Amino acid sequence: MAKLTIDDLKKIKDNYKATMTVRDGGSRAKVTVHMGTCGITAGARKVMEALLDEISKNNITDTIVTTSGCAGFCSKEPMVTVELLGSSPVKYITMDEDKMRKVVKEHLLGGKIVEDCALVAGNESSY
Questions:
Q1: What's the pLDDT tens digit per position in 82-95?
Q2: CATH code assigned at 50
């Protein structure tokens, strides 16, 4: 394994700061790609690649990208949850690269839910 460079350490630091920003409420949006075994098998890695590509192309700097395990609805994987500041989370289902690009453009950048890909908007509750 290659030795870490100063640039590598700066990237690690920046990623850590970005994670802390979410906890402190300093970002505008959070996108979670559900990457349990079922999600990965269904294509979640390609969805993640498309998401990161669109974020880079659009120079989006106020969004946190994270992963989680299975969301509990394996037959609808790959799944992505988009949370915009001040709005309910939206869970998108049966995602692929094209749908992810559409969600970035319309929901993440435009604030409009992509209804043909969405399963539900709102928080889950145990009561």
A1: 999 888 899 999 99
A2: 3.40.30.10
Partnered with residue 65 across adjacent β-strands are: 31
| pLDDT band, residue 124 (cuts 50/70/90) | low
19: in domain: no
Closest CA to 114 of 98, 28, 50: 98
Q: Are 77 and 48 in contact (CB under 8 A)?
A: no
Q: How far is CA 10 from CA 6, 72, 89, in A?
A: 6, 36, 31
Q: Name the residue range of residue 71's domain.
A: 27-121
Q: Is the pTM of this model over 0.70?
A: yes
For residue 17, is it within any domain? no
Q: Give the span between the Cα atoms of 60 and 31, in whole angstroms.
A: 12
Task: In whole angstroms, give the CA distance from residue 45 to residue 56.
Answer: 16
> How far is C-alpha 81 from the chain's CA centre?
6
User: Is 4 within a domain?
Assistant: no
Q: How many folded domains does the chain comprise?
A: 1
| H-run or E-run covering 65 | strand 63-68
